[in-house]
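Tokens in:
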């Protein structure tokens, strides 16, 4: 990609959705379930404070801040799961409505 390449708003949106695992239209049901399982694992690790990827937070924050950060992270991931599940439900309702 050169310095002057510009992305359309649609491309930027798609990249953002893909980054967070929310590009529902490009996933199969199995891929969505896999992403949900991954997020659930990360949620359980965050709740128990065993996320090694958050090692720096243990060094530079106090326990109350770590708890807040973990809970906020959990809420965001839960929201992503709910979004994906709602999209699956909507797709199933659309196919049911066509019958």
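Residues out:
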């Amino acid at each position: 990609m050169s310095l002057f390449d510009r992305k359309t708003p649609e491309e930027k949106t798609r990249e953002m959705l893909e980054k967070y695992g929310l590009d529902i239209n490009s996933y199969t049901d199995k891929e969505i379930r896999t992403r949900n399982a991954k997020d659930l694992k990360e949620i359980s690790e965050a709740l128990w404070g065993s996320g090694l990827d958050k090692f720096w937070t243990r060094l530079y924050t106090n326990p109350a801040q770590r708890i807040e950060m973990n809970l906020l992270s959990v809420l965001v991931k839960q929201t992503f799961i709910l979004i994906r599940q709602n999209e699956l439900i909507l797709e199933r309702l659309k196919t049911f409505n066509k019958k």
